[in-house]
Write a structure and sequence with these properties.
The protein is of the alpha/beta class. Helix content is about 40%, strand content about 15%.
């Protein structure tokens, strides 16, 4: 029997949600031009669009909000964040910003420009966009095992280090602006990266004089997987694992809206380079605000300081990742494919397998996301060719290595019953999968199209 880890908290407040009829949902998604981002949240029953900023803050975080120091400079909340971040990451310098893509906006142009490349185990959408906005090109370099969604591998998020060396040689080390390690590897299915792999990636990068950046949005979940799956780490705390992990990088960018369990906020970390940190500060002031608030209110900064600590709780992480394992176990019972083993923040349904009759350029993962909404009011999102967009040089549609429909579960929000509703909806879709058609785009922007593009069914 699939096990569910009980919530390590009590519920003190509830938010009512409404359930539309199937006929109403059909009209709503049509009015949204078949883009789930254009749906009103009031028209969604179970919202799995993202785990970013959608978690439930704790009583301690809400209490912290009440004492947040809103001083423009020298804020007490800023000092609390510096202490908390140093305790978790072991770095010397930190810069708050308003969210993860703001961190990328500040950091990426420091290292990247036209003619350069960034190599990553996989770039997420905003990371890829900021690499390209800086004039550079993004190259994904995940291990081949990640492409096999069925067979087990404990660390499918790993960098393919042999290929990374080849890419460095092909492009010239002077043209590789940075190596980016995404933990966990979101685009590969929320898959973890092993400590051994991070260490080896760092050693190779250092041998070529290339800086290493960690995309740290889900640092605590990655640390949990290392503790549970990698030899030598079972007796170490989440913080101890996190500190070793970050010791192998020079800088990190972070959306704190994930593992710090807050609704808004981000962080940049610089290990020990004062000159680099001065550059980060100089870029933050015109883009985000003065260095002690970085585009955030003092109350948001206070909540981040508390959330960084709460996100490293083993009991919380066991429950958190246990929700994904429970949902995946139910899908196993029904023979519904997903990226296995399940990732830390989401279940990544294998739409290429479920809707094998829909080709990549008709967006099977987006089609599955739309069907989930129609079937049960569940909002998810495409992590596939629709999200990848068009090649920046040729304008041709890129074929993604994966066609995933991501079910991103917000932290401390939904219960076991909600997960059961998701499974029942997927069973219904599976039984009528041959009736599902693909989609075409009728309008799209040049960058990050999946947020605002308009589609129609074929």
């Amino acid at each position: 029997m699939t096990k569910y880890y009980a919530e390590p908290f009590k519920i003190k407040m509830v938010e009512p949600i409404k359930i539309l009829t199937k006929e109403e949902r059909i009209e709503k998604i049509k009015a949204a031009n078949y883009n789930v981002f254009a749906l009103d949240s009031d028209d969604v029953y179970i919202d799995l669009l993202t785990d970013s900023g959608t978690g439930a803050m704790s009583a301690n975080q809400w209490a912290g909000i009440m004492v947040g120091d809103e001083a423009y400079s020298g804020s007490r909340s800023y000092k609390n964040l510096m202490i908390s971040a140093a305790d978790v990451f072991g770095y010397k310098y930190f810069q708050p910003v308003h969210q993860g893509r703001a961190a990328e906006k500040v950091v990426m142009p420091i290292f990247l420009e036209e003619g350069k490349v960034a190599i990553s185990n996989m770039h997420f959408d905003t990371t890829r966009a900021h690499v390209e906005l800086a004039g550079a090109r993004a190259i994904d370099c995940v291990i081949p095992e990640a492409l096999d969604t069925v067979n087990f591998h404990p660390f499918k998020g790993n960098m393919d280090n042999a290929r990374m060396k080849e890419l460095i040689e092909e492009n010239g080390s002077e043209n590789v602006g940075m190596i980016i390690i995404t933990v966990t590897n979101n685009s590969a299915g929320g898959q973890p990266v092993s400590m051994e792999n991070i260490r080896e990636t760092s050693e190779i990068a250092k041998s070529y004089g290339i800086p290493v950046c960690i995309d740290a949005a889900r640092y605590a979940e990655n640390s949990y997987f290392i503790k549970m799956r990698e030899d030598g780490y079972g007796d170490k705390s989440i913080k101890e694992i996190a500190q070793e992990m970050f010791s192998y990088a020079d800088v990190f960018t972070m959306s704190a809206k994930k593992d710090a369990i807050i609704n808004m906020g981000g962080l940049i970390g610089v290990k020990d380079d004062p000159e680099l940190f001065e550059t980060v500060k100089a870029r933050t002031i015109p883009y985000e605000g003065f260095i002690s608030y970085g585009g955030l209110s003092g109350r948001d900064i206070e909540a981040m300081a508390i959330g960084l600590q709460e996100g490293t709780s083993f009991d919380f992480l066991q429950y958190r990742i246990g929700q994904m394992e429970y949902l995946a176990g139910k899908l196993d019972e029904e023979g519904i494919a997903y990226q296995s083993p399940v990732g830390g923040h989401a279940v990544f349904l294998d739409a290429k397998k479920l809707l094998s009759h829909i080709p990549y350029h008709e967006f099977p993962a987006q089609a599955l996301a739309i069907e989930l909404y129609i079937e049960a009011g569940i909002r998810s999102c495409d992590i596939g060719s629709y999200m990848m967009g068009n090649d920046p040089d040729t304008g041709e549609q890129i074929e993604s290595q994966f066609e995933f429909t991501r079910l991103a579960v917000p932290r401390r929000v939904y219960t076991q019953s909600h997960l059961d509703v998701i499974v029942e909806a997927l069973k219904e879709i599976r039984d009528r999968k041959d009736q599902i058609k693909g989609y075409e785009i009728t309008w799209e922007p040049k960058v990050l199209r999946h947020f605002t593009a308009k589609l129609k069914p074929l």
